[in-house]
What we know:
The chain has a single domain, classed as Growth Hormone, Chain: A (Up-down Bundle). It is built from nine helices and no strands. It is mainly α.
Amino acid sequence: MLLLTGVSGLVDATSYLQLGHVFVANMTGNIVFIGFVLAGATGISLPNSAVAIASFLVGAFAAARLARPRESERAGLLRTVTAIQCVIVVLAIAFGFASQPTNGVTAYAVVGLLAAAMGAQSATTSRLAIPGFNSTVVLTTMLSTLAAESRLAGGSGANNGRRVLAIASMFGGGLVGAALTLRLVWLAPLVVAALVLAVTCLASSRTEPASMSQ
Length: 214
């Protein structure tokens, strides 16, 4: 779960900094961006945000359909979805590599592929219901839960350690992703994301379903 949260930061760093100020994991930002554009703001791509939202929904829908007959096979579901995500991210890398600089139709394709992968991830990790993880895609609810469940607020503090690690994971993913895309090659964060997804897929193959509920 921590690795997947880091992937969200990696791909959002790439999409926001290199593909026209659009998020592929954090759909809240895209919905707000569309409102900005309709109000007359410039420098934001309405089509990019729309493509991201639509693709995210398609990915989430597909993952949900895949998960329904496999509710009891949690490790297997995670393995399958992360493998699919890895293939999608590699395909996005291929599109980006084949058409540099990326713009127009190619940019939409890369945004759409990455958003679909993140939609699948969001739908799947929500179904896993790991304590302390509201989402591996957006941390707004996790931040509010962290505060509400803290001992200072009268809560038990249960699972707050995981929430802090998740926040740090996404921050680290965004930091590393931004550093790589700005200082190395713009596709580098996506390569790292694909490797992390591959590691997660392999790790989940060694995880028994019972252990994932701990």
